[in-house]
Amino acid sequence: MQPTRRSFLTLAAGTSLGLTSSLVPFTRTSGPGPKLKILLLGGTGFLGPHLIEAGQKRGHQFQLFNRGKTNPHLFPDLEKYRGDRDPQKGKGLTALEEAIGNGQKWDAVIDTSGYVPRIVDASAGLLQTAASQYLFISTLSVFADRSIDVREDSPLIQLEDPTVERILGSTYGGLKALCEQSARNAFGDAATIVRPGLIVGPLDPSDRFTYWPERIHRGGEILAPGKPSAPVQFVDARDLASWCIECLEQRVFGTYNAVGPAGRLTMEELLYGCKVVIGADASFTWVEDAFLLEQKVRPYTEMPLWIPRQGPPYGTAQCQKAISRGLSFRPTGDTIRDTLAWSRQRPADYRWRGGLAADKEMQLLADYRQREAADR
């Protein structure tokens, strides 16, 4: 039965879209603790600004190490070390080496920009005597089999050639798995590995979530991909950032999957939830996986959050371990609303990096209706 407005208003207020958790949350016993000096490797892209905002609200001090190429105007009041994560390029890690030589130390390092193990080896190895915790932002793409529900100890991808450094769809997950090990090799039990799935919300440059609030805001007939009951998972960058800062404050070590919601959320619930939250005049036409694949629609990028279900159902990431240590999620309705508000402030000529072009969507819908009529 097609979901009603009332049912999705309920979802937006609680249950799946509210992302409530039945688990007992991690409870602090002594407040956030002392103010920390944090070195952020990267810091001016998507997650970085949210980390800085969350940390500064709690009184922590940040220093940045990056190339100064992405949003260099951000955070003019922060101390910045300029260089390259790759010690073989430009000035490499010289600025950090000099700072450490002059006695600089940090309470923690957050690594948001490590993709190649050789490069993480270099930075983590250099910093192991100058910092007491290394928090590495990894990915759920490290898992070898995503057709099953994965937990932190599920098998990881093993690259045939571990020396490869070209980042492709076929190598990304395996490289990040090796980067995790690089962080552990340098910091041992003082390493914190955080594995988010799709990170969403304001500042997201990928459009892999933003497309849906924007498209539904535009209204009309909307192509909805695959099975309505397919599960979707993502985490608001602000929730992820806040929890990462708490991990530093509370000295939380180990490996954690970090993606929401706390309960099950389907593609149907998300899309109708967007419609309710936005108040859009929109309708959905559900188009089968096979047709979209035949038309060479690219999963997850051109059709955000769509993962074709061929063979066994696609599994979900189990995040109870992180939730038990304090990870929490704002209502999905808030993420939808805030993402749309931010997106509407972008230039009118903004070039989308994800989502179907309007003319292609119209053609796909027309072709699908014609196919359906011919089959009847």
Walkthrough of the structure:
This protein is α/β, with parallel strands linked by helices and 376 residues long. It has two domains: 1-22 and 200-233 and 261-307 and 331-376, UDP-galactose 4-epimerase, domain 1; 32-196, Rossmann fold (3-Layer(aba) Sandwich). 35% of the residues lie in helices and 14% in strands. The protein has 13 helices and 13 strands. Strands 3-2-1-4-5-6-10 form a seven-stranded parallel β-sheet, sandwiched between helices. Strand 5, helix 6 and strand 6 form a beta-alpha-beta unit. The longest helix has 18 residues, at 358-375. The radius of gyration is 22 Å and the shape is globular. It starts with a helix and ends with a helix.
**The CATH topology of the largest domain, please?**
Rossmann fold
Give the strand order, joined by hyphens, for the main sheet.
Answer: 3-2-1-4-5-6-10
- Quick one: how many beta strands? 13
Give the termini distance in whole angstroms. 22 Å
User: Pairing-aware structural class of the strands and helices?
Assistant: alpha/beta
Rg is: 22 Å
**Helix-strand pattern, N to C?**
HHEHEEHEHEHEEHEEHEHEHEEHHH
CATH superfamily of the largest domain: NAD(P)-binding Rossmann-like Domain
Give a quick account of the main beta sheet: strands, pairing sense, barrel closure: 7 strands, parallel
Mean pLDDT over all positions: 91
Spans of at least 5 consecutive residues with low confidence: 1-16, 18-30
Shape: globular
Helix coverage percent: 25-40%
Separate helix tally: 13
Integer tally of domains = 2
Name the beta content range: 5-15%
Architecture of the largest domain, according to CATH? 3-Layer(aba) Sandwich
**What would CATH call the class of the largest domain?**
Alpha Beta
